[in-house]
Write a structure and sequence with these properties.
Length: 527
Amino acid sequence: MGIYVNPGNTLYKEAVNSRIYVDKSEWISYTNTCLNTRQKNLCISRPRRFGKSTAADMLVAYYSRGCNSAALFSGRKVENDISFQEHLNRHNVIRLDVQQFLESKNDADFFFTDMERAVVRELGKEFPDCGSFGDERLKNVLNQIFARKGEGFVFVMDEWDCVFRLAKNREDAQKEYLDFLRGLFKGQEYVELAYMTGILPIKKYGEHSAINIFDEYSMIDPRASAGLFGFTGDEVRQQCKEQNVDYAEMEKWYDGYLIGKQHIYNPKSVADALMWKKFKSYWAGSETYEALKVYIEMNFDGLKEAVVEMLGGGRCRVNPRKFQNDMETFVTKDDVLVLLVYLGYLTYDEATNEVLIPNQEITQEFLNVVDEADWGGLISALNRSEALLKHTWALDEAAVADGMEAIHSETASLLKYNNENSLTCTVLMAYFSAKAYYMNPIMEMPSGKGFADVVYLPRRGIDKPALVVELKWNKSAEGALKQIKEKDYADWILEYTGDILLVAVNYDKSSKKHTCAIERHHKEAMR
């Protein structure tokens, strides 16, 4: 048993023995199908704390000849797979945590050379009958072993991308590292499986990836990995039951990541909430927290407006295909927003090509940043939200109009004031506090004979009216209210809730005044 070559199963044993553990061993069933195939090169990108390292430790414990892990996998889901016994502790494994060699940007020039030497030294001890390797390159040593013994290797490389995060502006070191990886993996017979994990997908130079042999499993395109990194709703519900924790509150704080068609929770945040019985943001002080501050302050047209809209529960359409997979190359706001998806501060809906803030935990991190950065009157505007929501429930039209006007005025420096989209942003900010009672707002929801501008549906178990909001520009609130009723915008949600509030808001461009009309509709009255 070595440190890098055929290591033991201690790290995975720690995970299994932890108080909060969710079985994700089905992932092994998938990686077994990739062994010694054209699909054997996998690059898994997920935000920090999403279980990447635990999955890597699990694969090492399963494949490595350096340990006996039968007891660790007893009763796990993978045990019933037909391929389980065939590969259990039957492979040579090389396990690398790149960040152990690249602790700071000062190591960028020589970290992978040190990594090579450390592995070659252990290979000499593990395969003494294959000769003396000296200072030979790692790929040459592995080729010699394969030629003499016919034995290949499973590679498990964690934090493979840290050079792109710690040495963001060292393009020379990045390219040299990618050349090393290409030489190590591309076209090599000794590779049975190459499994890399990191936060970022593989770096692009020009139109192509520098190591295009890898299949990418990312937050944007998860492929078969969607439900196997992070906790699913059913898994969290079961853990809440076992730990006697309120699932509805857990859902509000930590649900919301969309990975393919799956709703996923950040496992570390859920585990912390289960352990300490406290619902809060567990992201503060993380290595990517500073990045959030830097990136949302970038001077790209529309970026701040997009953040404001998403803080209110809205979404922003993006094109993820042009992102260069690094933390330095930005051309448009889309590049920044896509990076924030990979960092875990936004989530991506592949059905609509939109990004959004996933949950209350991440919303809190955005609020911390914009408060510190003094984004105009945004925090003041959001603080008005609770009162405005209560005025809406009370059908106090004048108070709602005054509140909308104040919020619109306070955020004029962040929004294009005389712009229809700014009115939508104003409404989303005005109902920011609705997050505590309602699901994320639905924008332009098809309903009746048209599209309601914004719809708020109450969370399960919350006794509050649904809100159907119609916005007008240089018209009238009464006309907007009439349109809601004539086009039956509330018809779609009749079976969802008892009470429905129809909320009409008009903005007059010349006077910069807002007017509001509100009516309550009961289910019985609508039939």
